[in-house]
Structure formats: structure tokens, C-alpha cells
Amino acid sequence: MNRAIIDQVRQRASERCEYCGIPETDSGLRFHVEHIIACQHGGSDELGNLALACPDCNWNKGTNLTGIDPDTGDVTVLFHPQRDAWREHFQNDPPRIKGDTGTGRTTVWLLNMNHPLRLRHRLWLWQLGEWP
Ligand SMILES: [Zn+2]
After folding, report:
1. How remote is the CA of residue 37 from the centroid of ligand 1, in Å?
2. Tens digits of per-residue pLDDT, 85-103?
3. Is 80 part of a structural domain of the chain?
4. d(CA 13, ligand 1 centre) in Å
5. Is residue 50 situated within a structural domain?
6. Distance from Cα 32 to the centre of ligand 1, integer Å
7. Is residue 86 in a domain?
8. How many A from CA of 20 to the centre of ligand 1?
């Protein structure tokens, strides 16, 4: 992946994680340009398959494309930041992120978005007016 593509992804995302929405500037960590559909599954380096993700979201997502909806037990496709509209699947209930659809619930659960340490971080960001 070349530098120009990485810069385009970072700029398109306004330097925020495209899953949980935290800003890169306050994370203290460099965010990852991740393959939404992993290379292992034939995903490309095209812009439409790339997303900016914080390390927590990226590490928890890994190469997964689906997960188990915690409410229904159904195998469910994960949120795709370039095809899906965030607000159709999630809502912020600071500092929590709630899934409104199967895709939203499954993504929140698989990416462990409401881990206590992540809630503490988002609460701090929320109090600073930097999230959501
Ligand atoms: Zn994230």
C-alpha cells in the first residue's frame, strides 16, 4: 500500500476511526489503514476496501467478515465503512456505542467497542467535546 493511498484514507476518515469514531490525534497511537475485506479473503488495496481503524477496532476485527449477533445468534455480516452508513447501524449513547441492527450489534460485540477501558477513554473524549 503506497503512502498516497494511506494519506487518502486518513483524510477521507477525517483522522477518526471509521468504526468507533475516536480521533487519532487524541489516541496516542497511530491508527491502522485496514482492509475491510482482508487480503486473506481476496480483499484489494482499493480505496473502497480500506478504512482507518483505531488499534482496538482493528485488532478485534482481525480478518473477520462476520460474527454472531448477540441478540439473535445469527451469523451476521460486519459493518463495512465504505458501503454502509454508520448511523443506520449504530448510535452513540456516550460513552457507549449501541448497535441498532444485526450488523451494528455484531460489530459492537466483535470489536469489543464497549470494553471498560474503551468506555473510560471515550468518556474522557466526550467530556472534552472530541467524541462523538
Ligand atoms: Zn475504533
Report:
1. 16
2. 999 999 999 999 999 999 9
3. yes
4. 12
5. yes
6. 10
7. yes
8. 4
